[in-house]
Structures are given as C-alpha cells and as structure tokens.
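[Meeting: bench + compute handoff]

Bench side (C.D.) handed over the final construct sequence. Compute side (W.E.) agreed to return the predicted structure before the next meeting so the bench team could plan truncations. Sequence as handed over:
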Amino acid sequence: MNNTVLICGNTNKALAASVAKSLNMPLADAKIDRFNDGEVNVDIHENVRGKDIFIIQSTCYPVNDSLMEILLIADALKRASAGSITAVIPYYGYARQDRRPRSKRVPISAKLKADLIMVAGIGRIITVDLHADQIQGFFNIPADNIYYSRIISDDILKSGHERCAIISPDVGGVVRARAVVKKIENSHLVIVDKRRQAPNKAEVMNIIGDVKDLDCIIIDDIIDTAGTLTQAAKALKQAGAKRIFAYCTHPVLSDPALDLIESSEIDYITVSDSIPLTAKAEKSTKIKVLPLGDLLAETIKRVIGHQSVSAMF
C-alpha cells in the first residue's frame, strides 16, 4: 500500500473519506474546482510519479461535471507520470443508455463514456451494480463490477425475516434478486411483470409468485423517480403482502421520488452511499443508508495485492 494514492473529485467526498479511513490512508492533496466560466480546474499538489492511483468518484448529479472531473484528474495524473490509474466509479452514470432500442436514432452513451475514460489514460475501472453487466464489454481495460448484494444479504439476515419473498421489480432484475435468494434461507423469488409506457413511467401488470402474508423485499439497482418501486409495492400489497421493504443500490431520487416514497406502501428503503443523499432525503423516515466504504476498500486491497475480486462474492 506504500505505493498507493487515493484521490477524489467533488461528487462524493464522504464516500471517498470512508474508503480512505477503511484503508487507513489519507486522501491525496489536490485542488479540483472551477474557473469563472465553469471549466473544471485540476491541480495535484503531491508527487504521483510511479504511484498506483485510485480516483474515487461517482458520476451522479451533476453528471457531466462529475465525468469531466474524472477525465481531467486522469489526464493530470498521466502527464505527471503516474504508474497506474484506476477509476473507482460506484455509480456509473449513463448506464441506462447502453443500446439502441429498436434501432432508434439515439447514442449509445454508456459506450461513448467508456471510450472517453480509456482515452483519458485510465487503465482499470471498478464499479458497483452496473445497470447492465455487459457494459463491462465496452471497455478494453479490466473492469471489475462489484455487487452490493453481499451487504444486502447480510442486512436481511440481521433483520431476522423468517420467511420472506425476494422481489425483482422487473424481468431485467431477476439475476440481481436471485443472488440474494441464494443467501437467504426460507425465501423465494417473485417477479413483478410491468409494461413501461414511457421513460420513468411504469404500469404494473401482475405478480408472478406467492407473496400472501409474507414480508416482501424488493431488490433493485437504481431508484430514480421511484415510480416502478412504489407501483410494485402497491401491487404487492394488493396481492396480500404483509410488510414491504426495498434495497436499492443507487439513490438517484429525482423528483417526485421522495413524495412518492413517503406516501407509498413501503415500510422503509435501504440504499448505499454511492450517491450522496440530499438534505430532504436525509430527513426521510423511510430511507436508511448502508455504506459501501468497506466493500470498496476491500476491492482496492485485492486489486493492489493481485488477488481475486470475484472471490468476495
């Protein structure tokens, strides 16, 4: 670890500090601010020649500024002769734009972002719960996607749910939900079948599986406007669910998410700190945070020590 340097942008300094604390290391001295016209200004204040650098930064709101910070930090490090540069991007923004649905005239933004990251000089990325695992294939460098499901499973076991249904809010999330089912005895998988009418709008159709008189635990990667989540909770309640909880890795929480959550059938939602909560979200009685710092720190240790990352899961 003597040759390792941690550096963070402005998006999520609390998470970066948590990772640094877990590794018993300081964050590098660097100035990352703005010129008067809004351009990002990066100045590294310590020697990084030959060092193994880890940039810790989620590409969440403001998404484009967050991405530019990563790219410019990487360019500064490359020009300062850093030995290796790894981008730790817990929340990979633009991940939902990973294909051209029905050959529409749209960009594949997740791929373009991957190209920019590689051109900037980054040699490895670490992400958490990518929206689509195949995004790893957009990179020609090592890409480690780690899974929050390990933390979720541990928390569910501590909560003492004797019998529960693990819910995938759509067909695309089945693999994620099944990973939790494998860890929880006396649980089974249930799928919410929905039809999406427009972006950020979802209509729940039916419940596939038994939820009557059971605690239902919804597993999802991103909670944005919370429309899918709250409609799924309503359908589960109508199907006889006893209590409803949710675990969502990335709390984007765009309007009107908080209002929908507060008035929903959900008892509470657990999220990671991949994206910092707003002041309003922090005051919510239905949202709690399970931090990622230790999991990311363990991943960094394994990368530095040339150990298996997949063995963690």
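W.E. noted at the follow-up: Residues 63-79 form the longest helix (17 residues). C.D. will use this when planning the next construct.
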